[in-house]
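Message: I would value a second opinion on how I read folds in token form. Give me a protein, with the fold worked out from its sequence. Write it directly below this note and I will take it from there.
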Amino acid sequence: MDARVKPAHDDWRGGSPCMAPDNRSRTAYIAWMRPQDILTPVPAGLYCKTGNFHIDPVRPVERAVITHGHSDHARAGHGAVLATQETLDIMRLRYGENFAGRTQAVRYGEEIRLGDISLKFHPAGHVLGSAQIAVTCNKTCIVASGDYKDVRDPTCAPFELVACDVFITEATFGLPVFRHGNAADEVGKLLASVALFPERAHLVGAYSLGKAQRVIALIREAGYHAPIYLHGAMEKITHYYQSRGVALGELLPVHGMKKADLAGTITLAPPTATSDIWTRRFPDPVTAFASGWMRVRARARQRGVELPLVISDHADWDGLTATIAATGAGEVWVTHGQEDALVHWCQSKGLAARPLDLVGYGDEEESETLAEGEEA
């Protein structure tokens, strides 16, 4: 057996062999399976009846395959979870040691067999440990991308293009208006503002998992070597990134700092923290927000953001369309986001396409709230 092909743990055995009624009809059944017979949208999420597992289920299930650690994809309470080691670690940090009955870690490129189903994890370029899941049965390959981006990120493995028959794509920024540009240029705007207003503190709202660490890494690459301060809600996951070898420089907790000492500094905080009384501890703060949604200036104004930074961990319109075309998929399923526009684009290119209409997934940049005890 190929050393990269790994049988599933006991929790992952027992999937129905392509759900054939008996062994005599099994081969014939496999031969005419349609993609929708392999993966099917159900209320809990995408379900593989053949392997008896869900991908990123929105409610507790017996067996869950998780693409990455964001809370709209990774939930606690499953009987068994299959994911990368980083995703399992992040779930453990967020939900505690007993977040699932059993877990199994998978490496990128490693193949897991569940009867006639093959699962393989490929980098998604979204956050640390994020993965696309390639589900193959009888040479039909469906790639569930989870969330992904196709641009460089110094804090996670780069997106890997996977040829497939069916590509399941997100559509968070699935409108032509969303073109993110160069993230390094946005960080340049932040550092220019820090230099221009040395008497003011700069507060950067960023999601705690992935975005915050990427922004810090980009700040360091731009030549800023002073300490960067963290809201308490940022600390655990950011220190975990450092433990995995991600270089982020000197990071300090903002808690306990004197107001005057924070002039001219940069602090990373969850977006919700930058708009409440917590900000009063900073001298005349400049509020920034790192998000793809900052392309829409009205959103920045509504949130009271003085310095919008268009930095996203999702593919923009050009990234989505280029990736779809490059996979070679003849069929595209579109989920969580601006589904209709992307479906229309696919159909205009001669591809079969449909929205999955899954519920329970959202943009973590917009929805993150602070847990009790996370105030800095």
User: Anything to note?
Assistant: DSSP finds ten helices and 20 strands in the chain. The chain has two domains: 5-177+314-367, 183-309.
